[in-house]
């Protein structure tokens, strides 16, 4: 129930619009009932062959209710769709706002297909919270109250009978169908989530699946998820048919009961034949708003689940929050890392263990070490994707937690091993780093990054994940982004690791050119052109085990020299 009230709180700003839509929904159904009643009145009265003039009121009624029903239905749809789109927009923005600070630390537990389902299907299901969950019961209640009142004028017994039948149709049938379909909506939703995850894995990993002969097994898993979903949907359709039949049965039962209660009143003159005909059709029409009620409970169940899944994201505490009054980023940007330790949640070994080092403005340092030594963890802490458990990183003498994380990320340009390119144009992939950049700026950055042949292709599509570009070109786009960012500090985290020897050399040259005058931290496990660095820190199992210039480290007999010899012997023999 808590989730339901939180969802209601979300749509609270539209309360008056929803009340208006419910009222107009009631007017629509009321007009339908009025139309049937006045039609019945004309037919019954005409059978007695009265003078034409006595039918005029009925004819005017038919015209009025006939027109009113259409007009009210249109206005009601207009308002409820307007509410729905407003809710949808609000939910999407709210979800994106909530998800942004969670990346990447809090999102790594979610599969991307699952996140996709939350943003598409769950939100889509919540957009109907008014039209399918809140609106129908309100309309049904108003119509039922009108009928109780109408019948009460003739007979208390008839009013009580219709109250019983309405209660059965409005409460009994929905509860019964809910009981029968318990878990179905949740099951269908889970199957859909499973399908999304499998589909996304198929699109992204089709190469690997083919390579290892796992494509048939993956397709079979997708097929099984689909047939599982279909089975549940079939069951759902049968239950839906059942509730419609039950409501129809109750409507006919109500009709017989009301006739049974009112026919004796004809002899006493309380009800005449014409009124009885009118009442009969009104009773039938009054069941129309009860038809969607069983689905209301099902939608409520689905919305509760969708709400829980979305609140799970919303309630997750972001790893990094901006301070209330962030410090401006200092002009002097020497870096001081002091006793920095970090352990990933759920891990019992320290990824970083009491690191201490400084980087002066304009200095170029390299952090090297074997795989798993903790090199990339340093990048994550610098970018504040994670927060350190102990120790600190300071820039210009201020702990980086005092800066706005967004500003910090603007001031530290990062080129990592894998550059993500959006399935957009070259221009859009570049302006990500500088939304206000002119075409001239983009062309200059592309030329400096060694992509002068791309300057005429700003509007060219990069393909899914930048598939239309080579690995080297993708890294050069990342370099162009860094150039556009104009950040004083650069971190290159295995920026050339995925490139072939020739491209690696070319990209490294470009990187050297653009990093001149900037503070540079290069993270790598490949010891190439190490003479250029002012200092090299050697990391092993989260600790700095050696540091110095290339030649000093080569003079020693430590890990650095062993790594260097291993790599260069391997290269010579390879
Ligand atoms: N998200 C994570 N959750 C738990 N442990 C992690 C996570 N990311 C990294 N680790 C662990 O932390 C340690 C340091 O990882 P890190 O990625 O910083 O090493 P690295 O030196 O950059 O390695 P490589 O050169 O292979 O990229 C490793 O033992 C790794 O398994």
From TrEMBL:
Domain ABC transporter: 335-566
Signal peptide: none
Membrane topology note: Multi-pass membrane protein
SMART domains, alphabetized: AAA (SM00382)
GO process annotations (BP): cell redox homeostasis; glutathione transmembrane transport
Cited InterPro entries: AAA+_ATPase (IPR003593), ABC1_TM_dom (IPR011527), ABC1_TM_sf (IPR036640), ABC_CydC/D (IPR014223), ABC_transporter-like_ATP-bd (IPR003439), ABC_transporter-like_CS (IPR017871), P-loop_NTPase (IPR027417), Type_1_exporter (IPR039421)
Ranges for domain ABC transmembrane type-1: 19-302
SUPFAM superfamilies found in the cross-reference section: ABC transporter transmembrane region, P-loop containing nucleoside triphosphate hydrolases
Regions crossing the membrane: 14-43, 133-151, 157-176, 269-291
Keywords: ATP-binding, Cell membrane, Membrane, Nucleotide-binding, Transmembrane, Transmembrane helix, Transport
Gene Ontology cellular component annotations, sorted alphabetically: plasma membrane
A UniProt-annotated Pfam family: ABC_tran
Gene3D superfamilies membership: ABC transporter type 1, transmembrane domain, P-loop containing nucleotide triphosphate hydrolases
Places the protein is found: Cell membrane
GO molecular function: ABC-type oligopeptide transporter activity; ATP binding; ATP hydrolysis activity
Chief location of this protein within or outside the cell: membrane
Zinc keyword on record: no
PANTHER family for this protein: ATP-BINDING CASSETTE SUB-FAMILY B MEMBER 10, MITOCHONDRIAL, ATP-DEPENDENT PERMEASE MDL1, MITOCHONDRIAL
Record protein name field: ABC transporter, CydDC cysteine exporter (CydDC-E) family, permease/ATP-binding protein CydC
Organism: Pelodictyon phaeoclathratiforme (strain DSM 5477 / BU-1)
